[in-house]
Write a structure and sequence with these properties.
Elements (H helix, E strand, L loop, with lengths): L9 H16 L10 E3 L7 E3 L6 E4 L6 E4 L3 E11 L5 E8 L6 E7 L12 E3 L7 E11 L5 E10 L11 E3 L1 E2 L4 E2 H7 L4 E3 L5 E5 L6 E4 L2 E9 L5 E5 L4 E4 L11 H6 L14 H4 L5 E3 L17 E3 L7 H6 L13 E6 L4 E5 L5 E5 L3 E4 L2 E4 L4 E4 L8 E3 L20 E3 L7 E6 L6 E5 L4 E2 L2 E2 L1 E3 L11 H6 L2 H4 L6 H5 L5 E4 L26 E4 L1 E2 L19 E7 L6 E5 L4 E4 L4 E3 L3 E4 L3 E5 L9 E4 L1
């Protein structure tokens, strides 16, 4: 489709004719070029209005068709050129009506475009070569078939000339800024389910509902219809712990404690300004399932008030269950009790199962964003998640790393082992980090026995490797990076058996009255069972398990974390994978990046 708009009012024609007649009467000689139209190449649009020309390209080709497959979103690079010696007024449009479930719009490409002036796109002359602007045109398609949309351009010398053909529709400008609730509701890729009177759920296999907040990737689950707060759950497991020792109740459990822990090691403590971003008095339906459903508060359901909670099985099913976006192919706890001693979990295949609370599975924390929080950047995709106002830091060059947040990514290490994450600031002034995934060797995860017994040290099998070859060979770290590492870190080796509290990995008792005496000093160590980032893995990889520092049930076992989020005890002489943990010095500073996986912090010694 090639669309041409050449609008000339009757009054203008009348004036031209009168001028010509006058000149002929005066005997003068006058020549001029009337409007001409040319089509220079197939699929190219080139229009001459007097001496006003332009060219439209899609993804670098002289094309105007945008094709998008079913249930997907695609961004097209569309360029519009004005090589003339005058200002041109232009507007993109599409032909016909869009099918239901299809949306189209343009997004100005930062640093390239001049924003449209009132109506249309205003391309100014640049020196003697005119101008060329590049736009991102987005098409979202939730229909069951592939669709193709043909773009046209209306052109004129002023905005009054920018009339569209009879069945042409202007592209709207797509924005991804505003109150979180409104942005989520406006995006057609988020198939909202309004069946519940209390929550509006985001559904679908891959909606555009990713949010980056406080160093972690989250998904929007639902909108609370009573106050417009927005429920988020982490995309990936953050750690792994035993749910409790004998009770499936959320209130008073190890799980509740871990999520709402406000000590230096706790999840809530390490969130960025929770009182600013998060609804601190959220209510969580932790009811036991009765006749296949959760009773409500009015029906005598168990409602727990906490800042951080977990999803219940009803919420998981309402978003699509195993066919929905919350199925991340990992094992993780829900808040829902099956009976007095077992809880529901989501398995790695997305199915729902039950298991005793003394077992350990992955944790996906859930929070409710305050209603007034705004999105200021991003498009909701995994690669470009929405960013929140107040958590979208730029220009961090020179900022100390020890001011940043658990989960943020760092460029550290070499080759295939060059991505790490912040764990916490357990030691004042220092920044504990761990490798984002187990160490690799020639594309495969490296495996190593823990040692001859369950106690980690710089001289046992795995400790000898980490404090020798890992830091000295040049294979895993550069000399500059080794110099950033604190020489002597205390590593806590408290034992945690099935059904015991995660706090015993560091403390003598669950009240945390004193630190365990079972420690070791080393430059490099591993994470403890239950520590932040200890259960983080972005996908299930068969036969992939990572060592922790923590002894298990007896003196014969050490805790390991499966890549699917499950925790268990294994004998120390078995070979398993390695996720090094180190403390970086207090004078390490940021030199670039924003801490996301796509743009990790670059760092150096200050």
């Amino acid at each position: 489709m090639k669309k041409i708009l050449l609008e000339t009012s009757f009054s203008k024609i009348y004036m031209i004719v009168m001028i010509i007649i006058t000149l002929l009467i005066l005997g003068g000689y006058f020549s001029y070029a009337m409007f001409t139209v040319t089509k220079e190449k197939e699929n190219a649009i080139s229009i001459v209005t007097g001496n006003l020309t332009y060219e439209l390209k899609v993804d670098g080709e002289e094309e105007n068709t945008l094709t998008v497959s079913a249930n997907s979103r695609k961004d097209f690079i569309v360029s519009l050129s004005n090589p003339n010696n005058r200002v041109g007024r232009f507007n993109f449009y599409y032909e016909g009506s869009l099918p239901e479930g299809v949306d189209i719009g343009y997004i100005e490409k930062e640093g390239v475009n001049t924003p449209p002036s009132s109506t249309g796109i205003n391309l100014e002359k640049v020196d003697t070569t005119g101008s060329s602007n590049t736009y991102i045109v987005r098409v979202s398609n939730t229909t069951e078939s592939e669709i193709s949309i043909e773009l046209g351009v209306s052109v004129g010398l002023d905005y009054n000339d920018l009339e569209l053909p009879e069945n042409g529709h202007l592209l709207r400008k797509i924005t991804s800024t505003g109150i979180v609730k409104e942005v989520i509701e406006d995006d057609i890729m988020n198939r909202l389910n309004y069946e519940d009177s209390e929550q509006t759920f985001v559904t679908g296999s891959n909606p555009y509902n990713y949010i980056w907040y406080s160093g972690k990737l989250w998904r929007v689950v639902s909108i609370d219809t009573s106050d417009n707060s927005v429920k988020l759950v982490t995309q990936w497991n953050i750690s792994t712990v035993n749910y409790d020792n004998d009770s499936s109740a959320f209130a008073g459990s190890y799980m509740e404690s871990w999520l709402n822990d406000t000590t230096i090691d706790g999840f809530l403590y390490n969130l960025r300004e929770p009182d600013k971003f998060i609804k601190m008095d959220s209510k969580w339906n932790a009811s036991m399932v009765v006749d296949g459903k959760l009773p409500s508060e009015e029906e005598g359901g168990t409602i727990v008030e906490d800042t951080v909670g977990l999803l219940n099985v009803y919420e998981y099913n309402m978003t699509g269950g195993s066919n929905g976006y919350l199925n991340n192919n990992l094992y993780w706890w829900t808040i829902t009790a099956n009976n007095s001693s077992t809880n529901y979990i989501v398995r790695y295949d997305g199915s729902i199962g039950t298991i005793g609370v003394t077992n350990c599975h992955g944790i996906r924390p859930v929070v409710n964003l305050n209603p007034n929080i705004k999105i200021v950047a991003g498009d909701g995709s995994e690669e470009n998640p929405y960013r929140l106002e107040g958590d979208n830091d730029n220009n961090l060059e020179g900022v100390k790393l020890n001011t940043r947040y658990s989960g943020e990514y760092i460029t550290f290490g070499t080759g295939e082992n060059n991505l790490y994450r912040i764990v916490s600031h357990e030691t004042e002034g220092l920044t504990k980090i761990t490798s984002a995934e187990p160490l690799k060797e020639n594309g495969n995860y490296k495996s190593l026995a823990f040692g001859g017994n369950v106690n980690y040290s710089s001289t046992n099998t795995i400790g000898s490797f980490l404090n020798g070859e890992y830091i000295n060979s040049g294979t895993y770290l550069t000399e500059e990076q080794v110099n950033m590492i604190e020489d002597n870190t205390t590593w806590y080796l408290g034992a945690v058996a099935n059904g015991q509290n995660y706090k015993l990995a560091k403390y003598t008792d669950i009240n945390m009255t004193s630190l365990t005496s079972n420690t070791t000093i080393a430059k490099v160590g591993l994470l403890r069972f239950g520590e932040l980032m200890a259960g983080q893995f972005v996908e299930y990889v068969s036969d992939t398990y990572s060592w922790t520092l923590t002894p298990g049930d007896t003196s014969y076992y050490v805790r390991i974390i499966f890549s699917n989020g499950y925790g268990a005890d294994f004998a120390p002489w078995n070979p398993y994978n390695i996720r090094p943990s180190i403390n970086l010095k207090s004078n390490v500073i940021i030199t670039g990046g924003d801490g996301t996986k796509e743009n990790p912090f670059a760092i150096e010694l200050g």
